[in-house]
Amino acid sequence: MSTITNNARRRFMVQSGLGLLALSGMPSFLQAMEGMTAMPRIAPRKANPNFKADVEFDLYCKPSKVAILTGAQTQVLQYSAVLKKGPKETLANIPGSYLGPIIRLQKGQKVRIVLHNDLSEATVAHWHGLHVPAEMDGHPRYAIDPGATLVYEFEVLNRAGMNIYHPHPHEATASQVYQGLAGALFIHDDEEAKLELPAGEYEIPLVIQDRLFDEQNQLIYVRNMHDRMAGFYGDHILVNGRPDLKIDVASRAYRLRILNGSNARIYKLAWDDGTPITVLGVDGGLLEQPEVKAYVMLAPGERLDVWADFSGRSVGSQLVMRSLAFTGVLPKMAQRMGNMMHANQLPVGSDYPIFTVRVTQSVSDSPKLPAQLSSFARYHINNVANPEKPVPIAISESPMAMLLNGRAYADNDVQDFERIKVNTLQLLEIFHAHGGMGMDHKVGGMGMGHKGGGMGMGMMGGMMSMAHPIHLHGQQFQIISRSISSDKTDDYETVRHGFIENGLKDTVLVMPGETVRIIKPFQDFKGLFMYHCHNLEHEDMGMMRDFLVE
Q1: 39 pLDDT tier (thresholds 50, 70, 90)
Q2: Residue 490: which H helix or E strand, with range?
């Protein structure tokens, strides 16, 4: 095992005004950041000759050029794949898109994937949402250098659902995803098949991302400190890698499989004519019964399974999926600063179109919405190993750091409460602990504060409070409660009815002042499993930690 040190964050701090402040007044902070950038590397894993794969394919990541806007092609990073064994429907490219091929797997299949790094920097692939061994999960320790290969081998244990694959290298996840390295991964099972939901051309994957381009149609990324602190936002909404997407449909029911693949942007999805959104499932697959919502919130990393019935609509009619206006996900000061610095940027929380559906064909036959979709085990407080001492996930922000449990990410820095016994159910509590480097907060008797600093960080942390989508690797969890502080209720009212809480999740949006309690299983596999903010700029700034399951 060797150690690779990346000094990109320190250079960035030195080159910014806030960086000069940190250098002159906070040497201990810089030392912590230097420690955070060291990441051991584990030698690339080879194929196990005793593993008998049902499905095997090569997955390549390499530079490419694609047509996105009118005019010059855009330089991107792109996944491509070659199937070596398994059903031909395992891989399907999205025509004209920079996104990786759609991967379709069946529960129970044994899968071998050989990752080829044809980039100019290290990378590793994470199977976001899959329940796999720690060494297969895409931890940054397993990143491979340019020209190297890495073999993943695992059995598909997940129930049916939409998952994601994307890079997870230390301090470079955000830039690699932004440049195009992402794709959808579907799991199918017998329970789903019995429902006979819309499939084939009537099942439409929709990956929503925002991007920013220069005059030569090239991607722009991270122009200043604000773009990191708030997260990076673009001014073009792309769906499946294309702007102004228009989908032609028949007058019947469809299944829309929606993923928020943006780095930081949160969406409030709603049909423009007020038609309710009928939700079939979320991150971890189908709900027990469909839920009908006026709108649905969708944060980076979250997925949505939607029943969209266009029956009775006339040929030539249109329906637009929009993101409606909402407030509270960014500090007001940061939002004003962003609007001033980037006057042409699509404002966070504004109202804008996502994609358009056009009815081009009239048909009389359409499937019916099932009343019962699925069944899964429900977790309760009396099932958990720690009912009186929830594992804390404390969010804090400051001008120089994004932290979880008062600490920036560092290798080999697992705290006592981050050590989890295998094959247990755990109660976790995600909350905002303002105070950044000056806090000493305790939850359930488990101290996790990081003392020191001072400098008014408590007040500054409160002023900088923003929404964070928190993603936990490994098995999906269940949300058991949400609560909001009284001073945040006005903003919260603009989003609160858009949360789906009855399904299985692996990513949850935590609003400023909100506390979310979840129950998560840690079954089958020992090792390091990450948890982090899925605002990818925040993740790369250190808003990430490890659970050690042992």
Answers
A1: confident
A2: helix 489-492
Average pLDDT over residues 119-125: 98
- The whole-angstrom separation of Cα 482 and Cα 495 is 13
Say how far residue 312 (Cα) sits from the centre of its chain.
Answer: 36
Nearest to 129 by CA among 492, 505, 435: 505
Q: Where are the alpha helices (DSSP H) in 173-296?
A: 173-178, 190-195, 225-229
Cβ proximity of 160 and 191 under 8 Å: yes
What are the strands, taking DSSP E only, across 31-117? 38-41, 55-66, 74-85, 91-92, 102-106, 110-117
Q: How many CB atoms lie within 10 A of CB 6?
A: 17
Residue 235's closest CA among 69, 39, 426?
A: 69
Fold assignment, 381-549: Immunoglobulin-like (2.60.40)
**CA 405/CA 414 separation, integer angstroms:** 11
CATH number for domain 200-361, candidates 2.60.40.420, 3.30.310.50, 3.40.50.1820, 1.20.58.220: 2.60.40.420
* CA–CA dist 303, 520 (Å, integer): 18
537's CB contacts (< 8 A; 6+ apart) are 174, 222, 227, 228, 229, 230, 231, 232, 263, 264
The Cα 518–Cα 508 span in angstroms is 10
CA angle 413, 130, 540 (to 5 degrees): 40
Which residue, among 171, 242, 234, has the nearest Cα to 207 in the 3D structure?
242
Give residue 436's region: left, alpha or beta (phi > 0; psi -120 to 50): left
Task: Label residues 27-63 b or e (16+ Cβ within 10 Å = b).
Answer: eebbebbeebbebebeebbeeeeeeebbbbbebbbee
Yes or no: say if 356 and 247 are a contact pair by the CB < 8 Å rule.
Answer: yes
Q: Does domain 55-195 have CATH number 2.60.40.420?
A: yes
Q: Where are the domains of the chain?
A: 2-41, 55-195, 200-361, 381-549
Neighbours of 312 (CB within 10 A): 11
CA 511 – CA 332 distance, rounded (Å): 14
State the pTM of this model. Answer: 0.90
- Per DSSP, 407 falls in state B
Over residues 465-508, the pLDDT tens digits come to 899 999 999 999 999 999 999 888 999 999 999 999 999 999 99
